């Protein structure tokens, strides 16, 4: 399918920070995708968790499986809208590269530890990974991705950090946060696909863990109730895992088609002539319908209250926070415990945060036990 006029066209990319000759067989966004897949940070995602810690079970989602699911959903929707699928996949695979071990607990701990040193934002850390921390090439640090890929990776950014990035890279990937502009449609779609994916798989993982039940979801979440009852109307004898999977499958399909239909209507109304018009539109042009947005928001509120704040999850979160807080204090007080390339950096607090953020769950636990003699899990 040809690219729509408002898609990011790799032949019209704003380019890379360090110019490189074009590849003979791949587009610029295909090259970006391949660089992400071969990066060290991407491989580490297999042992970084979403809600449940890595040692709690082999079937729970990790950051890697989540990223693959986001890429699949994004490509499916993007194909119907005439967007560049390779750019969507690149952003989806890279969007969690800066996530800490132990999910959002790690993000919160590092931000607290770094309050006096510039703070910590996992989206900004993802950009830092692809711009600086990956060291694979002789001519530059980072992966030297295109502007459009980097723009999509930087999903959120505080104004303070946007100003710092803009000072270092005028009219760069942070400029839109200062101008009130939007990213390209491929980045907008990756954000939506991320939301669809984590809502669905947190239902799956929550029920599998025993912390949630389908009956509880049916009673409290209209979106789940609708598709569960649809599944039972067609397959009255369905129970257990098959009923769970069929409910989630129907919900995912409905959300995908809803995004396609609502976004087509929005694009027709806005009629952006090109990707620059998309950026200047003043609002995202890819969206859920009003009804589906309400249903998705209700589901998120339920998951926050009933899963993410479940006492068992919170108890493990507290121990995970202790692991990372104590690691940060140890490294900051005794840099000799850090690898030499981190210990020798001028900004020691940031080096400590970079090292901890790059850890997998199991490496963080192993390192904490080595340095403290404690086994918290």
Describe the structure.
This protein is mainly α and 377 residues long. The protein has two domains: 26-313, Hypothetical protein af1432; 314-372, no CATH class. It is built from 19 helices and no strands. It has helices spanning 28-37, 40-44, 63-81, 85-94, 103-113, 122-133, 147-153, 159-168, 175-179, 185-209, 214-220, 222-234, 240-270, 275-279, 290-308, 311-333, 340-343, 348-357, 361-372. The N and C termini lie far apart (50 Å).
Task: Provide a brief overview of the structure.
By secondary structure, the protein is mainly alpha-helical. It contains 19 helices and no strands. The protein has 2 domains: about 25-315, Hypothetical protein af1432 (Orthogonal Bundle); about 315-370, no CATH class.
The CATH class label of the largest domain is Mainly Alpha
Count of discrete domains: 2
How many beta-strand elements? 0
Low-confidence stretches: none
Categorize the overall geometry.
globular
Name the CATH architecture of the largest domain. Orthogonal Bundle
* Order of helix and strand elements from N to C terminus: HHHHHHHHHHHHHHHHHHH
Oligomer classification = single chain
- From the 3D structure, determine the CATH topology of the largest domain: Hypothetical protein af1432
Largest sheet: none
Number of helices: 19
Distance between the termini: 50 Å
Protein name: Deoxyguanosinetriphosphate triphosphohydrolase-like protein
Keywords: Hydrolase
Organism: Roseateles asaccharophilus
Region (Disordered): 9-30
